[in-house]
Amino acid sequence: MFIAMNRFRVALGSETDFEQVWLNRDVHLKTVPGFETFHLLRGPQHEDHVLYSSHTIWSSKAHFEDWTRSDAFREAHKNAGQTGTRSLYLGPPQFEGFEVLQTVDKT
């Protein structure tokens, strides 16, 4: 299992625009081989931004990497971070990838 996360520093005042971009986008992840789960997370507010994270679970790192090289990935990210000409972000997203070593489930 592989977890892919992107952290976004969203400029104060741009939270609603950022959330609407994500919540109203066409999602095609369900058809991507190896995809398991997606979460959009809202974190703490700081002096100049609110921290958000996208959190995706894949069956393997290879499946995630295959998706990042696909036309579907390029299409999904072609307008990332832009509303008109104004950027929603303070800097680029910060990617973090993790291979799962242990899982503890409720069941």
Automatic annotation (TrEMBL):
It comes from the Bacteria. Keywords: Monooxygenase, Oxidoreductase. InterPro entries: ABM_dom (IPR007138), Dimeric_a/b-barrel (IPR011008), Heme-degrading_MO (IPR050404). GO terms for molecular function: monooxygenase activity. The keyword Oxidoreductase applies. Pfam families: ABM (PF03992). Gene3D superfamilies: 3.30.70.100. This is Antibiotic biosynthesis monooxygenase. It comes from Lichenicola cladoniae. The lineage of its organism: Bacteria, Pseudomonadati, Pseudomonadota, Alphaproteobacteria, Acetobacterales.
